[in-house]
Amino acid sequence: MEIKKSGLDGIIWKNVQNEIAQKGYAILENVLDDADCSELIDAFTNSSLYRKTVEMERYRFGSGTYKYFKYPLPSLLSQHREDIYPKLVPVANQWMEDLKMDVTFPENLAELQKKCALNGQHLATPLILKYGKGGYNTLHQDLYGDVYFPMQAVLFLNDPGTDYTGGEFVMTQQVPRAQSKAIVLRPKKGSMLIFTTNFRPMKGKKGHYRVSMKHGVSEVNSGERYTLGIIFHDATS
Q: How far is CA 119 from the centre of its chain?
């Protein structure tokens, strides 16, 4: 899916919603321009922006570094998070209905954050990630508490094939009583990937069933890879 202008204004969200519903993900190109990407990469070393730094090898999550932003978020990140969330709510609520789950997501991000707070989830979850040569991220799900939104996004801040090689974004889809399916993506610089956080419905002969999803990053062969993750629910720690 190619977006002809920078930012979110030119996006036909109905098409994005349909794509996510069908595949569990959608790629939006040209969401950030080069200046946006450079600004976010430069911010990686600004310790005042972050509440927590994680060296992935220490926890056997992979190899690389990620940092959780603290509130208030940088304006670019905060605005995208607030603007994207309500566009995804119709898909999220349809998924819950399809799977006969007694969960409904509010229409705006502030109301979701209130639900998180009632569950003790007060901390910001958006994060920036850096991988050098040999870096990777094991398959995982970003939940952070009992209240979680079933979709999230990642922004790609530099160019695959130019700034780094390898480092593909990987998703696995586990259908019950079947082998896992791998999905390997290489979005361009400035692109946003919206994808399933933990599970989504698929339609079978007897109705919808639940498909588990995980995501990670393959090994970086050369260069440095930067991305920014946008998670909509808050965290307990």
A: 22
Phi-psi region of 149 (alpha: psi -120 to 50; beta: other; left: phi over 0): beta
Helix then strand count (H, E) for the chain reads 4, 15
Q: Are 103 and 150 in contact (CB under 8 A)?
A: no
Burial environment of residue 208 by CB neighbours within 10 A (0 to 12, 13 to 18, 19 or more): middle
User: How big is the chain, counted in residues?
Assistant: 237
On whether the CB atoms of residues 214 and 171 are closer than 8 A, the answer is: yes
- Written as one letter, the residue type at 219 is E
pLDDT 10s digits, 79-126:
999 999 999 999 999 999 999 999 999 999 999 999 999 999 999 999
Amino acid 28 reads: L
Residue 211, classed as helix, strand or coil, is strand
Q: What is the pTM (predicted TM-score) of this model?
A: 0.95
- CA 194-121-138 angle, 5° bins: 45
Rg (CA), the chain: 17
Q: How far apart are CA 30 and CA 123, in angstroms?
A: 29
What is the C-alpha separation between 27 and 19, in angstroms, rounded? 9
